Amino acid sequence: MMARQSPYPELAALKARISDLSHLKQNILMTYAVLGGLEHGVERTAAELAELIGVPAPHFSRARRELEDAKYLECTHKEGQVRFFRLGEAATGRSVVVALTGRPTG
To answer: Measured between alpha carbons, how far is 21 from 14 in angstroms, rounded to an integer?
Structure first.
């Protein structure tokens, strides 16, 4: 019998990369993957996302901070004190190339 291939190979690969994390952290990362894909930031507050997945906001924020420290999430931008995130290199398995700023050299 042949194994059935996932219709979403990127999500299957993400699930494999995060399988050793706690269920809360897996849920957070999968939420970012569903809402923002592998490349886009998610413009929702921690409180909104915590409510969406059904956990207290302080638990969500602490887990998200740990995921950022471990490079599973990266901050895309800030609006006032609110930071927005997308999946990072550890989650996507891709190296993120940052555009150079300033004058070209050479």
So the answer is: 12
Helix ranges, 1-106 (H): 9-17, 23-36, 46-53, 57-69, 89-92
Model confidence pLDDT, tens digit, residues 48-95: 999 999 999 999 999 999 999 999 999 999 999 999 999 999 999 877
CA distance 8 to 96: 21
Contact call for residues 91 and 14 (beta carbons, < 8 A): yes
Q: How far apart are CA 48 and CA 15, in angstroms?
A: 23
Angle, vertex CA 30, rays to CA 10 and CA 88, nearest 5: 70
For the entire predicted model, the pTM comes to 0.82
Residue 27 to residue 58: CA distance in whole angstroms = 15
Distance CA 42, CA 2 (A): 37
